[in-house]
């Protein structure tokens, strides 16, 4: 079972659609009083008949759910976690306030706690109410900068244990001036490397350009740094996987997120791929490309 919760507008509806595509039986806004009935222990006569059992169930719950009470829900989750016949995962969806405000404004929807007040006030109150659920979650996904495609990859990666797949690693380049990526597990700073920004011929290009990559790699500290990074990660990855981690995000940052971090992320992702590790490569602060898609905005992407 996957219970999907989080902030209104952060992408619960989109999450349930992704899970449906992955073979889950999805139920949205189920009254909390019915949750124990939906997940009643399997009867012996049903155990032998796969058609009478749902192998994967996804349930969406948020403030709009009838009978919502975070304390009651936490009690129900504790009881469900204690069951030997149920593999429970709680997914909490988070998002930056400014993006949530834009999503509600663009879709002209009301925030459930802002019917008579500014949207920002409703979001602030909701964060306080939902914090205990965030702390109890197995997976926290921040949808602020994720495309729907990259979100799907992250979500499917988060369920790798249940599906028997290996841990998924995301390598992410970013600009420090745009802030640290919330989803990052490990962050590395490559602002010490020579910066192609100060070369007039290289400034307009990005780290995927061979000449830009050659310039960055010519820095005498690049190769030792990358070797040290590989040496650090090589023993960590199997340990993370052994501890049950479904996905890992490694973020590499530089000032503008265009040159040094991109080159390093490209080389790191290539090394991980050579090891047979399931890896996704994202460049957060490069203009959207056909391979990366558009940033999350409104309808057709994330709608909570």
Structural class estimated from helices and strands: alpha/beta
Percent helix: 25-40%
Q: Kindly give the count of domains.
A: 2
Instruction: Write down the Rg.
Output: 22 Å
Number of helices: 11
CATH class categorisation of the largest domain: Alpha Beta
CATH superfamily (homologous) name of the largest domain: P-loop containing nucleotide triphosphate hydrolases
Q: Strand order of the main beta sheet, please?
A: 2-3-1-4-5
Give the mean pLDDT.
Answer: 84
In short:
The protein has 304 residues and is α/β, with parallel strands linked by helices.
Q: Would you kindly provide a written description of the structure presented here, covering whatever features stand out?
A:
The chain folds into two domains: 2-144, P-loop containing nucleotide triphosphate hydrolases (Rossmann fold, 3-Layer(aba) Sandwich), CATH 3.40.50.300; 168-283, no CATH class. The protein has helices at 12-21, 35-38, 44-47, 70-81, 97-107, 119-136, 148-158, 160-163, 210-217, 222-242, 260-274; strands at 2-6, 25-28, 57-60, 89-94, 139-142, 168-175, 186-189, 247-254, 279-283. The protein has eleven helices and nine strands. Helix 5 (97-107) crosses helix 6. Residues 289-304 have low confidence and may be disordered. The strands form two sheets. Strands 2-3-1-4-5 form a five-stranded parallel beta sheet, sandwiched between helices. A four-stranded parallel beta sheet has the order 7-8-6-9. Helix content is 39%, strand content 16%. The protein is α/β, with parallel strands linked by helices.
């Amino acid at each position: 079972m996957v219970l999907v919760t989080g902030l209104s507008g952060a992408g619960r509806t989109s999450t349930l659609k992704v899970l449906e595509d992955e073979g889950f039986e999805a139920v949205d806004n189920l009254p909390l009083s019915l949750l124990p009935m939906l997940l009643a222990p399997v009867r012996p006569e049903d155990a032998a008949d796969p058609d009478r059992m749902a192998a994967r169930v996804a349930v969406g719950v948020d403030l709009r759910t009838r009978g919502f009470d975070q304390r009651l829900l936490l009690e129900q989750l504790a009881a469900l976690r204690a069951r030997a016949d149920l593999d429970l995962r709680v997914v909490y969806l988070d998002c930056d306030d400014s993006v949530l405000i834009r999503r509600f404004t663009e879709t002209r929807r009301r925030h459930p706690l802002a019917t008579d007040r500014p949207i920002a006030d409703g979001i602030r109150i909701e964060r306080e109410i939902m914090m205990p659920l965030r702390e109890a979650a197995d997976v926290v996904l921040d949808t602020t900068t994720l495309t729907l495609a990259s979100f799907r990859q992250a979500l499917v990666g988060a369920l790798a244990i249940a599906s028997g797949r290996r841990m998924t690693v995301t390598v992410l380049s970013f600009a420090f001036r745009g802030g640290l990526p919330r989803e990052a597990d490990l962050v590395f700073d490559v602002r010490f490397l020579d910066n192609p920004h100060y070369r007039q011929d290289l400034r307009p290009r990005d780290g995927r350009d061979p000449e830009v990559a050659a310039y960055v790699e010519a820095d005498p500290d690049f190769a030792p740094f990358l070797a040290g990074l590989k040496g650090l990660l090589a023993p960590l990855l199997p340990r993370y996987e052994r501890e049950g981690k479904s996905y890992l995000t490694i973020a590499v940052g530089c000032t503008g997120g265009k040159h040094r971090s991109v080159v390093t992320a490209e080389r790191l992702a290539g090394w991980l791929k050579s090891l047979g590790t399931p890896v996704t490569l994202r460049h957060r602060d490069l203009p959207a490309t056909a391979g990366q898609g558009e940033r999350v905005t409104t309808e057709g992407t994330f709608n909570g």
